[in-house]
Amino acid sequence: MIIPWHELQAETLTCMLEEYVTRDGTDYGDVEMGLETKVEQVRHLLRTGEAVILFSQSTGHCNIVSRNSL
Q: Whole-model pTM?
């Protein structure tokens, strides 16, 4: 199920984005970036519709994925 990012409380969305960008295996290339920069990049992807928040009812987990991967 796709969760509209703009319907989440600001603090909830920020926490979700921070958890996402700090996960093991998240690669941002050769350039080192701060947490705030990474969060804002993913927030931009959500705003532009390039990424969406998916909620799995079977696992109870949320994930952020590229819209192209759906």
A: 0.84
